[in-house]
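We modelled the chain as a single entity of 307 amino acids. Its sequence is:
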Amino acid sequence: MSRSNSASGRLTNWLLKQHPALVAKLPAFIALTRADRPIGILLLLWPTITALWIAGEGSPDLALLAIFVSGTAVMRSAGCCINDFADYNIDDKVARTRNRPLATGQLSRKEAAGCFAVLSFIGLILVLMTNYLTFVLSFGAIAVASLYPFMKRFTHLPQLVLGVAFSWGILMAFSAQTNSIPAPAYLLFLANVLWTVAYDTEYAMVDREFDLKIGVKSTAILFGDLDRFCIGLLQLLFIATLWFAGLQLELGMSFTIGLVAASALLIHQQLLIRNRQPEACFRAFLNNNWVGAVIFVGLVVDYLRAG
């Protein structure tokens, strides 16, 4: 047996002896943070590292890259904790969420809040490794992420708040890399807000019939029969804003090809949601991972070609 395996075994045995209740609840905490379902992390990660690549003009600081990749995973997981804390009394009424740990009683609200606090503290430690401007911005990120889960009770635009939360990392990436937030950063921020509202509306379409019964608000309910049109318009504006940002940044053909590939994927999503079937809408939502990926790859190739 290797030293690492031996050390791991000793740690496991120590945890089992000292904290058996915590070890027993580890699967529930994994489910709470969606560590087993990384789609949310990926949707947050692609625009953040895209911004970091642009801020670094194709050569981002590798330490910052590690910080932002880790921070994205940590803060997305923290967001899931506070989301379930807010939705503890409605998740059991929705088919898609009724097996979440708080809905089934596997974890308490206090445990979810504690997990959120621990993960947020880890995120704060990570951001302390950057600079003062990024540190200040991080409080806005935590505030918006904490606010989002409660918005569905007061407004039909919780997806807009999520868009701001999922785009905040773009501003932080620029501030960490350049110690400033130049104009193109705000264009990328706007584009990502548009994209997030579009794909989270697809997500909300999955639960629309349940949300209507329990009084939860969403853009899927607000848009009504115009849902596909509104999603398409948001997607069009998303691509147009990125294209305009590319012009401002003097990005080349590879980035444009990435936008074309992303547009094809968005058209595919429109075909998926055409009958508004929940499973198809969920597949359309998941497809957005590839939208973010092809845009990032196009950008990286563009900088490599230019270099």
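As a brief sanity check on the tokenised model: Residues 183-214 form the longest helix (32 residues). Residues 127 and 135 are 6 Å apart (CA to CA).
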